[in-house]
Amino acid sequence: MIPRYTRPDMAAIWEANNKFRIMLEVETLAAEAMEQNGTIPQGVSKALRERGNFNAARIDEIERDVKHDVIAFLTNVAEYVGEEARFMHQGMTSSDVLDTTFAVQLTQSADILLTDLDKVLAALKKRVLEHKDTICIGRSHGIHAEPTTFGVKLAGHYAAFARAKKRLQDAKKEVAVCAISGAVGTYATVPPEIESYVAEKLGLTPETVSTQVIPRDRHAMFFAVMGVIASSIENLAIEIRHLQRTEVREAEEFFSEKQKGSSAMPHKRNPILTENLTGLARMVRSAVIPAMENVALWHERDISHSSVERFIAPDTTVALDFALGRMANVIENLLVYPDRMKSNLDRMGGLVFSQRTLLALTQNGISREDAYRIVQRSAMKVWESDGKVSLRDMLEQDTDVTSKLDKSALDKIFDLSVYTKHAGTIIDRALAS
Amino acid sequence: MIPRYTRPDMAAIWEANNKFRIMLEVETLAAEAMEQNGTIPQGVSKALRERGNFNAARIDEIERDVKHDVIAFLTNVAEYVGEEARFMHQGMTSSDVLDTTFAVQLTQSADILLTDLDKVLAALKKRVLEHKDTICIGRSHGIHAEPTTFGVKLAGHYAAFARAKKRLQDAKKEVAVCAISGAVGTYATVPPEIESYVAEKLGLTPETVSTQVIPRDRHAMFFAVMGVIASSIENLAIEIRHLQRTEVREAEEFFSEKQKGSSAMPHKRNPILTENLTGLARMVRSAVIPAMENVALWHERDISHSSVERFIAPDTTVALDFALGRMANVIENLLVYPDRMKSNLDRMGGLVFSQRTLLALTQNGISREDAYRIVQRSAMKVWESDGKVSLRDMLEQDTDVTSKLDKSALDKIFDLSVYTKHAGTIIDRALAS
Amino acid sequence: MIPRYTRPDMAAIWEANNKFRIMLEVETLAAEAMEQNGTIPQGVSKALRERGNFNAARIDEIERDVKHDVIAFLTNVAEYVGEEARFMHQGMTSSDVLDTTFAVQLTQSADILLTDLDKVLAALKKRVLEHKDTICIGRSHGIHAEPTTFGVKLAGHYAAFARAKKRLQDAKKEVAVCAISGAVGTYATVPPEIESYVAEKLGLTPETVSTQVIPRDRHAMFFAVMGVIASSIENLAIEIRHLQRTEVREAEEFFSEKQKGSSAMPHKRNPILTENLTGLARMVRSAVIPAMENVALWHERDISHSSVERFIAPDTTVALDFALGRMANVIENLLVYPDRMKSNLDRMGGLVFSQRTLLALTQNGISREDAYRIVQRSAMKVWESDGKVSLRDMLEQDTDVTSKLDKSALDKIFDLSVYTKHAGTIIDRALAS
Amino acid sequence: MIPRYTRPDMAAIWEANNKFRIMLEVETLAAEAMEQNGTIPQGVSKALRERGNFNAARIDEIERDVKHDVIAFLTNVAEYVGEEARFMHQGMTSSDVLDTTFAVQLTQSADILLTDLDKVLAALKKRVLEHKDTICIGRSHGIHAEPTTFGVKLAGHYAAFARAKKRLQDAKKEVAVCAISGAVGTYATVPPEIESYVAEKLGLTPETVSTQVIPRDRHAMFFAVMGVIASSIENLAIEIRHLQRTEVREAEEFFSEKQKGSSAMPHKRNPILTENLTGLARMVRSAVIPAMENVALWHERDISHSSVERFIAPDTTVALDFALGRMANVIENLLVYPDRMKSNLDRMGGLVFSQRTLLALTQNGISREDAYRIVQRSAMKVWESDGKVSLRDMLEQDTDVTSKLDKSALDKIFDLSVYTKHAGTIIDRALAS
Lengths: 433, 433, 433, 433
Description:
4 copies of one chain form a homotetramer. By secondary structure, chain A is mainly α.
């Protein structure tokens, strides 16, 4: 959690106080269930509700002695609650409260990330509709291919983030589990009813088999999904970085009045937000392998996952939250230059119509191979002229072409509208996804 | 694909002939749809169905010239089909056929992996039920904790593989998509109906927005899920490796008559299968980051993902198929030693009952902290004696204990059945998952 | 940087104040060189030395406006220095000061890590010498193999950390470079002499070709080396975790008086320090791929590496520093149980002598294959008896053995000293490495 | 090893026959040393030299029975050698021959990779010298910054590959070690002299402490270095992909006569080689983490590293060899368009001189902040005009500028030669690195 890339709501989830608050709630709910069950005396949960409290600094102090975080927490809570505290946590093991608390924190962060995704989707939707018919060149391999619309381009990213949302909803379910099963998960000292009660109150599902800890394949999925989402962020970030290149300049990140692009070169407007998102994507992805390495704990559990999660849970959710927020802003405020898109499209001398010419020739009885060669010889001249010669002119000078395609046939080929006629269909499909 | 770790069915999916067969089917189906649509003459698909063929070696030869794999394929098919071939692939782009073919291959491999998972689940289920009540020590941090049953232990892994199956089913859906949308995905030269027809015939869903290629976040999810499954394999493999350690020896991989454990030490029986699975898990995981790096293709597509997928698609699915098959065998044939489990359990002098003692003391009016200290001072003596002194003896010599707990109270504490009473519940829950 | 895993000296390197202090020094040294060079008036560096100062909070405040960290810094310094400040940074670009500062920070952290490695080496050396002749069983695949000494075991780790030190020294040299070459690295506005001067004063080497930024393959090597060192830490941590297993208990992490192993089970002594080190190793390794992804910056530079480095530089060096410090303590205070090592060694009924028997038989005219079979049939009985039957007894009942090996020959075979006779050589070699 | 990305020399290193050939050599050399030592009878090594042979298919057949690769190999060799074979491998363990053989294979592949690097360096050097003074725009953030030369651009990559070579030489030394130390590495059954002899004959160094296997931190370093080299390949590949973009087109991969860029669009010339290199870089990097995970083997060794290395050793060295070979060709044949570089440079209306103007203003008594604002207001107009308005014209209309800088001062500022004056120095430094 680096302040620069941290937003307060997500950060709050990972603060010690939120963690201890949830831990206290878990203990209190467990006490309620145990009272109902008759394993502890009435009044314990009431005492916990009324006097239950904690002090993070004091917990740290105790932990330095006992070297055990949950014992330190329980000791501190007991200092507030008094007598009844000795029935708290009865038959439970540390992981019961830690893993259930972690589950709550992860679902809290998933909720923020889902809201973030909605904002990215909303920003994209707005720009998709705005630029539904804004013609621009589509590029494969960085090379002009055929025209498309800027709306369609963004619609592809919309669909990717819609998939991201679906995946995160599933991943949230994976981690939204509660485990209160006692040492090595046998329920020997805490019957399954306690777990069911606490789970229901917290909106979680009881873990199928918890072996003391919640199995880490669940968390591995959660971090893997964040890694995939980050990769979709990178994908869109790189699109924008490309569009902002000096030679392309079809779009630009919004550049505020006071902003300085370079300490040395006052003219610079750099796509620093999307470059930053490219880097953050690498960071979010970097948690995936450690999270997977955490799965193979020894026997019923070891604690090697703990230090990893202390890093990656806050760092990854915070960085992804920041990244999604930044991406929503970038899209919302993106400066789009349709004129520039049009002039880039035009500068290649109509090369983009080469495939349509090829098809028309084959439909007029020329073999695919011959048609390819015929079109390629004109196309290469246009290419080498850097667009100063036009493809249409070249084709009109080639009798292999003109013997098959007259002027009106060529008019039909050199018609941009064909590239946009399905834009509506594509966009509708994307926005419905 | 290393022969040693390759099984024929999965390997067959990735052979050139399977790929070309699917490509030919995609082209033929597309031709059928185009005939219905009237964009190509009748008879093309019939010609493809009747004479459509290919020769992998010849395709290689052509590719060396044209340096383009799909053109080489189409040229070769045309050599078989003749005249009608010029209408094949009309308006389509290479990715239409390549990505759709890849989708078919991935769903084929997902189907094999799902069957593999069923076998692992079946093997686990059998052993879970067999050892439902086989008492063994549960271990946290590699240290004896409290008793559990071997059936419960395996049930945890059953539940993990049940989750694995669910995830793989979802991941299969993610990649089971068809894209036939032409250059940069505008459908300018091939209307959406063609795609819908081919998709339906192949059991795929049309891609929402394909931008020429199927977006790689889908594949990233697929590889991420395989990485998580591999981590669950590692988890079980490490459990078995631990159980087979000389000092533990609660279970062993099956060791065949002729097998030699060591070229130097004839007495050795090594858990080499599960060690091998540990390594294979690392390999399957290693595809996850490259698959995520593949997402951020430039603009409508670049081809950087291609070399990555040529490696990871066969290598990862083949290795995971092999690993799941090996794991099913390991579990099926695992030698389990209940006597040894019992004797390991016993050797710690009853330390496993320490928590129950602690609870009983707190329930008899002693504060948790005091109870902890009382039990710990006895427990430490037992521990230091290496189990030669028993916890029960120590407790009976401690008046702080005996003043609260009489013989019958201690009898109730030192009762193993408490650790197994919920085994049935846990196992039922797992097997139903 | 998580307080729990952070030591103050390493943390101080990454604090804003240390960074700004180095930045100011770079600017001041550059000013000195420029004065000597005549490109700026005399007195600027003196002003910087005398009045040069900064305030981190104020810099943040300015950055919020200008959205550029170096401009914010320079503006703030100018507020302290006054008039002369306008000659500061002349012809330089932000990366000149940022990358050179980062180089200083990395070398500072490398120095701490090298000291940490020395402490690990010293702790290991002490225990190696102490346990030079402490016999224990060597294990391959977790299975008893042949005897070795605990000193030799640790000597292997000593050698690994000696290699770690060598690698880190090399990696430090890789990053100990200075770049002051102006925009896109042409020295157009700041001649190479400035860079040489600053480099020399800071103990750095001028970058060969800096293209505005110091190329990130250098940093990738640095993080890769930390990843390898972390893996060596994991290796030793896992050794200790294995030795501390209840059934093995040949060594234990030191357990302090007040420490509590478990909130539920008072008897537990868990190897939590080395489990923690296992997790920290995963974290240190997780920086390696992002650091490598940082290498391929666009053209002369982009800023995607920056966010990555803001995370991984502090997090990785801090975590590795903590891990090395913890490892030195663990080794220093490790409880070693030679009696237990001896009793573990003995419990396998002398199986460890199987290979020596095999060799003796082959040296007495029996083919290797036959000898293997002869020894294996006895060895398997011993194994199956769980060490209750001894290998020597079995062999003495086998006429295929006794026809070749008499009692004195068997005495010579069943002699532990053979496994320790080279311990001194091995250890001397390790300690000299 | 995918045929498409495999070159024969590197592939040959990893063929079974090469492996068995080295294994036989290790056994033969060990036999020579043992004869000299008197531990085995004279004549064994002679028999091995004269009749020693193997058959890979037969070894596979035996392995299916004994499930142990080295025993299978030894059995097969004995079938050729006869009687004397029983003294072969005496006192050695499988890893002695396997790990030493692997060391030889890795050094062989390092030698090929070093030759590959020399070819990349030679190709770069040639083009660096050719384009020493070819002016082109330098870009930061994808945005025009200041001019540089194409030779300087390439010189940066030259320096990176020179560093790569140095690192690979070091990494080769790391793995060029020999271990013949017997079970768990005690030399109990094979004295250190055997190891020294074999090591010397094979050009290797004896391992410091081998614990049966050569410690895997050495191999981790080797794979990490390949990962860094791959990242430098990616860096140069991405530079070329950028330069080849339609709008930039300052350089292009060589495009052969018969090559087809697209099945659909005949005009396309795509940077497919460098896109391919981008993907291969991801693959080479993917071996780094598994290689690091291999370090923490259990106790004296387990075999989890083996399956990993069966994949990554051939795949990574073969892919990197192919990638370096391809990169050398790409550079050798790269089409460079100096005219296009010049016209790209010119199209920004002289914005590149903004920094020099800024400096000149500060040197004429204007504060840095004021100068920045003055230059920026002109620069922004030029930028917004898309280069149709020139910076010089704008500045000449600004009295804040003209009051400080007269025509001759501006002439001096707007002089391209300043950006190339140090090109020679930079290039000389790079080529000497």
